[in-house]
Amino acid sequence: SKLTSLGQLEMTWRSRVHFHPLLVRVLHKSRLRYYGKPEKKLDMPYQAYFEVADGSGMMSMVLWNSLCPEWYNSIKVGTVLLLEQYAIKTSYPFKTQPTPGDSQMKRFATIEISLNVRDPPTKISIIPEEMVKPGWGLPEVKYRFITRSELDDLPNNHSCDVIGLVTFVGRAERARKREHGEDFWLYRWAHAIDGTSDQPFILELFATSQPEVFEHIHPMTYLVCTQMRVVRDLTENPSSTIYLTTSNESQIFITGWHKGQPYTKDTKVKNFIQWTKTQSEADQMKKTVIGGYYPFPRPPNSFLKY
């Protein structure tokens, strides 16, 4: 069929009502957002953002309401989609922006693709990877993996991806979203090592929309976390309190979930797998810890410093 591109959409969207089909690859996926309120009578008040790209650049795509439970788990990072009968809207200005793995990619930030059950009823098709043709010019998913030895040189809020062997995982903890609100964020701390430093990655993992992964992180699993943000305490000793926290677009994967993921082709991931083959499982098992209370960043040693 006659296709359009994201670049053409940006130029012509104001003058059209119906748009030609789009062929895109998913590069980023946000967590699922629930926006229900007691006074609003919506059946499925859900929303999820994806960043999709073709040969012309990258644009946001929003999945609304009942399409979320139907499609959210099927649309993964790397999935190729054929979209028909979608709507184009001006972009929501306050949404979070993932850091693209390819810094050269053009970003169309003024508009977004809106997928709804009606007005118009969107048709979504997933194209199996073996049927994707090179001639379509779809970009590959690119990552920004770092090793633990590189972490100390990175600035606050820098975006990166990491892979490591889990040596510690804490219990799930809760933090209030707002001071007097009733909503909570669920998170847990984890340590992961990659053989490039004596220090582990310290990871603050908020529950993404992947409960089946979040609940099963355990020592000795290979953990991949994408779109993590560097957090460093710039006031005290900067190197002592550096850790990574999840962002709205973070995805986490553990042993059993890696097969077929685009990051398996990444050089740093391959290097990590080579390193794990040189390690003795029994030796690493002795150093692992699970559960308990993990105060971090650690409080000072004396009350005077407090």
UniProtKB/TrEMBL annotation:
Family annotation (InterPro entries): NA-bd_OB-fold (IPR012340), RADX (IPR040893)
MF-aspect GO terms: single-stranded DNA binding
Pfam families: RADX
Superkingdom assignment: Eukaryota
Signal sequence segment: none
Gene3D superfamilies named in the record: Nucleic acid-binding proteins (2.40.50.140)
PANTHER family: RPA-RELATED PROTEIN RADX (PTHR14944)
Protein name in UniProt: RADX protein
Organism of this sequence: Stercorarius parasiticus (Parasitic jaeger)
Gene name per UniProt: Radx_1
